[in-house]
Design brief:
The protein is α/β, with parallel strands linked by helices. The chain has 6 helices and 7 strands, in the order βαβαβαββββααα. It is about 30% helix and about 25% strand. α1 crosses α4. The relative contact order is 0.18.
């Protein structure tokens, strides 16, 4: 039987590469395909008030277009001293008219946290994954969350990984290093997406085993 396909619904190539590492690491045997490979260029409006709502908006939109099992996620940085900001607006924090580059987002975190005492610098990177596929004439829809707890550094890590700006400001307790300092393999083992994927393992195994069907 041919390997089952799973659409990773993102335009972020670094995120796609991370999912390849994660699924390989947890032993899920699926052929991961990208939006570009399926010729899908549209995108939904992310109007949700939570990561879960936005992940579901994306999963439903791309599943309707791709007609194959689809995984989408939404997530970002939550800083306790800023009331949970940037939160669901992590990638649109500076507004439609502002500089939304990775460097600008990192600079804004450091600026807003200037002078905040160490005990109040707690933060986390959170993600919600939404998974959709067809099985037995019905559409199955599952979600799961994962997070990495840490603290906001006083200075940013100088090497900002494209597509993952907040890893340059989050320090991981017990490791005494920035999240962005970890190598790809090590980071994939502890990432918020790895945690969420692990919670969806049974559903992913159903897809890999061919329980579902690709819609024509």
């Amino acid at each position: 039987m041919a390997m089952r396909r799973l659409l990773i619904a993102t335009t972020n190539l670094a995120k796609l590469a991370e999912y390849r590492l994660i699924l390989r690491g947890v032993g899920i045997d699926l052929e991961l395909v990208s939006l570009a490979e399926l010729g899908i260029s549209g995108r939904p409006e992310e109007t949700g008030a939570t990561f879960t709502e936005n992940a579901l908006i994306k999963a439903r939109f791309y599943f309707q277009h791709a007609r194959i099992a689809t995984l989408a996620d939404d997530g970002g940085l939550e800083i306790d001293a800023l009331g949970g900001a940037p939160g669901v607006r992590s990638h649109r924090w500076l507004g439609s008219g502002g500089d939304d580059s990775d460097q600008a987002l990192v600079n804004e975190v450091i600026r807003r946290m200037k002078g905040v005492e160490a005990a109040r610098r707690t933060a986390r990177i959170r993600a919600t994954i939404a998974l959709m596929h067809a099985e037995g004439g019905a559409i199955r829809e599952k979600t799961a969350e994962g997070e990495i707890e840490g603290a906001i550094a006083e200075r940013a890590y100088p090497a900002i990984r494209a597509g993952f700006p907040y890893r340059a400001v989050l320090v991981i307790p017990g490791r005494n290093c920035y999240l962005g300092e970890l190598g790809d393999e090590e980071e994939a083992q502890i990432s918020q997406r790895r945690i969420a994927v692990s919670k969806l393992r049974d559903e992913l195994e159903r897809i890999a085993a061919g329980c579902g069907a690709e819609l024509l």
